[in-house]
Write a structure and sequence with these properties.
The chain is an alpha+beta fold. The protein is built from eight helices and 15 strands. The strands form three sheets. Strands 4-3-5-6-7-8-9-10 form an eight-stranded mixed sheet, with helices on both faces. Strands 12-11-13-15-14 form a five-stranded mixed sheet, sandwiched between helices. Strands 1-2 form a two-stranded antiparallel ribbon.
């Protein structure tokens, strides 16, 4: 992927400057011209949808092509979706460093585009209607530096989005984790326990026993968006297997919707954006749910 330094605006249009304005506008250009705007992330998600909608769930779409950078098999739908994202960004002459589960790390300039073009590939491949496209732009090489994020529900066509300090939205409707305080046994907790060891099951068993409503849907980014709009009270993954590509977009959306994501050590979650980064986390909507979950985890130690 070439990254030419041409004098173009944020959307690839040529900029014509008078001599008197050159100095001032050049400084502004150097600061923002290669930032990937939220609108382009939205467009890339829509292009993923259009590129994959006719092959999701088909034998051809499920065909395994190669082992991706994340170590899993890349199916045709994964590769097609990734190509849709990269081609959208290239169309506008933008050149961030791209970090993806399939492509690995493609060096660029000015920031980082973190992509999981299909999160929930297994669901998509067998017709379970819960999978998404997750895209994030970060100014630095860490989760807390994500500036823009989109997660598109590729079955329902909804786009969750956020920009730092501007709130979180589904389509054009502002969302929030909500203020409803459910009773302990009425809490709705999402939890990923796939390939969980016996020790890890022991750790989470107290949380499972807290409520009558534990849910596992199979696409972490989209589940975190459900937390963001108040459908879940918490979402937990303590397996140490989640990648930055899975988390980057939803991380900002949860924060902008009023939730907080913690590490198992009760610190606000942050990590680098490397393809091989792995993490565990506890995402909650408020302090009450935080206290309830971490009290339970401490009891199990």
């Amino acid at each position: 992927m070439r990254c030419p330094r041409t004098r173009r605006g944020s959307y690839g249009h040529k900029t014509f400057l008078s001599p008197l304005l050159c100095c001032h506008v050049f400084i502004l250009y150097k600061q923002v011209s290669y930032v990937v705007p939220l609108e382009i992330l939205r467009e890339a998600c829509v292009n993923v949808y259009n590129r994959t909608r006719n092959i999701i769930g088909t034998q051809e779409g499920n065909r395994r092509l190669r082992i991706g950078a994340g170590g899993d098999w890349s199916r045709r739908i994964d590769v097609e979706a990734e190509e849709a994202v990269i081609s959208t960004v290239k169309k506008y002459g933008l050149c961030p460093t791209i970090i993806g589960e399939e492509c690995g790390k493609i060096p660029g300039q000015d920031g980082f585009l973190v992509i999981d073009p299909i999160d929930g590939t297994t669901n998509a491949s067998v017709g379970l209607p819960f999978y998404c496209s997750s895209l994030a732009y970060a100014s630095e090489y860490k989760l807390s530096a994500v500036l823009h994020a989109t997660v598109m529900d590729l079955f329902r066509g909804e786009i969750y989005s956020a920009s730092r300090n501007k709130g979180a939205y589904v389509n054009e409707i502002k969302i929030h984790v909500g203020n409803e305080d459910r009773q302990d046994d009425e809490l709705i907790i999402g939890m990923n326990v796939s390939r969980t060891s016996s020790d890890e099951i022991h750790t989470v068993s107290k949380i499972i026993g807290l409520t009558d409503h534990v849910r596992l849907f199979g696409a972490n980014a989209l589940e975190l968006c459900y937390l963001s709009k108040g459908s879940l009270d918490a979402f937990i993954d303590l397996r140490g297997k989640i990648r930055a590509t899975d988390m980057a977009a939803a991380y900002l959306i949860v924060r902008e919707a009023g939730g907080i994501i913690y590490s198992p050590l009760e610190q606000v979650l942050d990590t680098d954006l490397g393809v091989n980064s792995r993490m565990s986390f506890v995402a909650v909507k408020n302090d009450k749910v935080h206290d309830l979950i971490f009290d339970a985890l401490r009891l199990k130690k």
